[in-house]
């Protein structure tokens, strides 16, 4: 039995706990949250002990891996303490608010040669694999990313210094997909709508991106809406246009292919396989997510500083 601890007991932790509980070879060994009521509520659902913080969870011992499912502002200490115990680490996106925190964690994971994974489950969509096949031999020349949505119902999200803003917190999924289908990003220029409230995230941003392979890209984000309106990535290559959402691939505006809906299970299963030392298809280990995080942070910086930002390798 693989014994997993979970740090953070909010929405995404509940999802991982449900998926992990469905695996016959995994036990939720403990759940920690700085809000003891939340820890208790999720832990009791899974018959696990609850802890008031990650340090208590780690001190209790007996873990094989830890999921860190905290909001953006809370990353850093939990990961370092997990790594100090030499435990494999699954981290929810975004990795952190700044680059330094994530770079230090990446260095430590590498130094200890520990399995890691990040919650970029879009990489496990079966329609993403089909999109890659359709694009084989046809380099993408244009990418159009969107995240046009409502404000998520979590208290910290609208505060810039807690969430990092919509690009870092949400559109990072689309940026990760763009890196996969188009390639590395070398320049970004983001322009926020000029009506942001002091200390709060931008309600709308548009951005231009240049990819290292020469492709051109656009990204549009907004949280002004009352529901999810358009979230995904469109790409154009010689003679083909693909439109990807989390559920559907549209080919040339006509042929729709539905996803099999198993990405959120695969992302956990492959990490557990890696923890168990079995053949594992972990598509976004921490170091790979760090490359996407750099793009998101460059866009956020460009929007704040009102100037293009170049990414260096
Ligand atoms: N990959 C995905 O599809 C996906 C989906 C939802 C959320 N997320 C990400 O997961 C993260 C959490 O989102 P959420 O919706 O679960 O938020 P949430 O607010 O519902 O839950 C976060 C929990 O973390 C707890 N917490 C805060 N600091 C902590 C700390 N230092 N130690 C332990 N617990 C701490 C909070 O008390 C809260 O219960 C966000 O970064 C979000 O982007 C990813």
UniProtKB/TrEMBL annotation:
**Which residues are the signal sequence here?**
none
Question: What InterPro entries does this protein's entry cite?
Answer: Gfo/Idh/MocA-like_OxRdtase_N, Gfo/Idh/MocA_Oxidoreductase, GFO_IDH_MocA-like_dom, NAD(P)-bd_dom_sf
Reading the lineage from the top rank, the first entry is Bacteria
Q: Which residues form the GFO/IDH/MocA-like oxidoreductase domain?
A: 145-237
Single GO MF descriptor: nucleotide binding
Q: Ranges for the Gfo/Idh/MocA-like oxidoreductase N-terminal domain?
A: 3-120
Q: Which Pfam families match?
A: GFO_IDH_MocA, GFO_IDH_MocA_C3
PANTHER family named among the record's database cross-references: D-GLUCOSIDE 3-DEHYDROGENASE, UDP-N-ACETYL-2-AMINO-2-DEOXY-D-GLUCURONATE OXIDASE
Q: What is this protein called?
A: Putative dehydrogenase
Which species does the entry assign this protein to? Answer: Nonomuraea fuscirosea
